[in-house]
Design goal:
This protein is of the alpha/beta class. It contains nine helices and 13 strands. The chain has one domain: TIM Barrel (Alpha-Beta Barrel), CATH 3.20.20.
Length: 320
């Protein structure tokens, strides 16, 4: 599989941003499941999302940038339905601090750095992105392995309307292209109209798209009473949060199929609700070129399935 000019060989399964932490080490809850199949050897590492400036978000981090509280109040799970609601809010120490550790630069296998601009206006977000790109660019020659940027245009846990971010895509691509690495834009199907995303099909600066980020609580796409059991988010004080897990699978696969039917030909990384082989099969049939796993690797998901699912996804022969 290739994204831009980066060849990932047989790998077609990406970790959702944050699943493996900022540097790919994973989290405490992966350790007890490791002997039973919670292994990321066959998964493409995507870093937890970084912003230009340090961002407190809704949870505190350790000096090594892990969660201080293993059970933060900004996360709720629905274990029977394999669902998770999170409002972490992009907690991170800022791109410069993360680069200063040198850990990304020392990686020897291709990976992705997830970034997002969070300023309050489009103009300020683009300026923020310019600075962020320049900071990464200063370290570009230090990287041992190739990487691509996954630019988040859809986080539900920031203050601005994600639908506005869709309209910024072309300008975001222009600014980020200065770095000279492949670019994957990440969206939520809750705020990414098919006709808007289709405009990227003819944009040479866009190498791939990723869908879906979480679906914001309250979105009309979800029957919240049926799916979560309440129309009021348990994370209302944190802004409501975003839903991930099995309920997303039919919604995202349908969205991808509609995008393909509309004529979209670029690389699509699809994910949301993949818990076993059936999820991989559904995304492949819908038209995804690669797959994204997230909730499966949480304690209330199916962490023992990570290795089996990733190996199955990697061995699929996908030809579009």
């Amino acid at each position: 599989m290739k994204i831009g000019n980066i060849d990932f060989d047989q790998k077609k399964v990406l970790a959702a941003s944050g699943v493996m932490g900022f540097f790919g080490k994973g989290y405490w809850h992966h350790i007890p499941f490791k002997p039973f199949g919670c292994r990321f050897d066959d998964v493409i590492f995507v870093s937890k999302t970084a912003t230009l400036m340090p961002r407190k978000g809704n949870t505190r981090l350790t000096k090594r940038f892990n969660l201080i509280n293993p059970f933060p109040r900004c996360i709720r799970v629905h274990p029977r339905k394999k669902l998770m609601l999170n409002a972490i809010g992009l907690s991170n120490p800022g791109i410069a601090t993360l680069l200063a550790t040198g850990k990304w630069q020392k990686r020897t296998e291709p990976f992705a750095i997830s970034i997002m601009s969070v300023a309050e206006t489009p103009e300020k977000r683009l300026e923020e992105l310019r600075i962020l790109i320049d900071i990464v660019g200063l370290q570009l020659n230090e990287f041992q392995a190739p990487f691509f940027l996954q630019i988040n245009l859809s986080c539900p846990n920031t203050e601005h309307d994600p639908r506005i971010l869709i309209g910024e895509s072309a300008r975001v691509l222009e600014v980020a292209s200065r770095l000279g690495v492949p670019i994957m834009l990440k969206y939520s199907i809750a705020s990414a109209p098919i006709e808007a995303v289709m405009e990227l099909n003819d944009n040479p600066l866009c190498d791939a798209i990723c869908v879906s980020n979480t679906i914001p609580f309250g979105s009309e796409l979800i029957d919240w009473k049926k799916v979560w059991g309440s129309i009021v988010s348990p994370l209302a004080r944190f802004g409501g949060g975003g839903l991930s897990g099995e309920a997303l699978l039919p919604l995202v696969t349908n969205w991808i199929a509609e995008l393909r039917d509309a004529g979209f030909t670029k690389h699509i990384n699809g994910g949301g609700g993949i818990m076993d082989r059936t999820g991989i099969k559904a995304y492949s049939r819908a038209g995804a070129d690669s797959f994204m796993i997230g909730t499966i690797a949480t304690p209330r998901g199916k962490p023992w399935n990570v290795q089996e699912v990733s190996r199955y996804g990697n061995q699929l022969d996908i030809r579009r």
